[in-house]
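Help!! Second protein's tokens look totally different from the first
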Amino acid sequence: MVERQSFFSFLPHLILALGILVVAFPVYVAFVASTWDPATISNGTMPLRPGPYFLENYRQTLFEGTARSSRSPVGLMMLNSLVMALTIAIGKIAISIISAFAIVYFRFPFRMTAFWVIFVTLMLPVEVRIYPTYKIVADLGLLDSYMGLTVPLIASATATLLFRQFFMTVPDELVEASKIDGAGPMQFFRDTLLPLSITTVAALFVIQFIYGWNQYLWPLLITTREGMQTIVIGIKKMIVTQDALTEWQIAMATAVLAMLPPVLVVIIMQRLFVKGLVETEK
């Protein structure tokens, strides 16, 4: 017997399809614009199909850059953004997981005070401490360097809190079993806690990678040479005040390329990412 499904059973799928269309259509238009010549885009006669300048526009974008606003090739900008995003993501996870391990499994004076000091920094975003941070980086001679781009953004109170909450759910029997086996603190951390934390690490890596990739204000302040610009800064500089002077095909190609690494990271780590967000019992 074939079961009949009412219209309301398809309604969630219809709403989801419409939502995907609303989100994906501007991305498709940006891709189409990146495959046409500037005259077609400026005249408002661009069709909704890819044009014949795909290879030419993307070759110029990746290896030559724009002729008017920024001569730095987008390939170099993407490399800078990739170094920044990876360093921030890995650095935040490494520092946070070690901090949480120390807070949960070691008994030392002012242990909870140290945790709450870390937690209070959640109320101090980069914009609030931007001037003293910039002053310190400038005094250390780290302007226009990868260390200047990444080190001030590595610490993360959110990741420390998440790791602490997870470590507190680890049964005490595992700690006792490790002690009986003669394992030291770092061996227990390496052999027991790290494997159990894979899903949490994956979820945080995706979030922090996208956070580092999309940084705008800090790279804008810390970089003065075109060779150190990130791709987000490059997109902004390509769009000049006079609309007629903007090379829209290069700007749209840059925008499409800027979306690829975060999307690839989410696709590759999708299963672990979702599991790390929704899993309650490890």
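Here's the second one for comparison:
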Amino acid sequence: MNTHMVSIREMRQRLRYWLARVQAGDEIIVMCRGTEAARLVPPRQNPKPLPDLSEFRASMKLKGRPLSAQVIGARRSSKF
């Protein structure tokens, strides 16, 4: 991973290039009058997958009408 320091002016002029460098894994430090204004880093890789809940959902026994049907029925019966 390489680190590059660029001015705001350089960033504006070559934004696509610098974003491509970030996608390639480089880190970009944007400088404003000699001080760090921003830091662009590549996104985190390999997010944790969500657990499989199909067995859990299958084990649940539901009774009565679906909640959506109850809400629709309550809306129809109420007087506005």
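Reply: Different proteins will give different token patterns, so don't panic. The longest strand covers residues 27-32.
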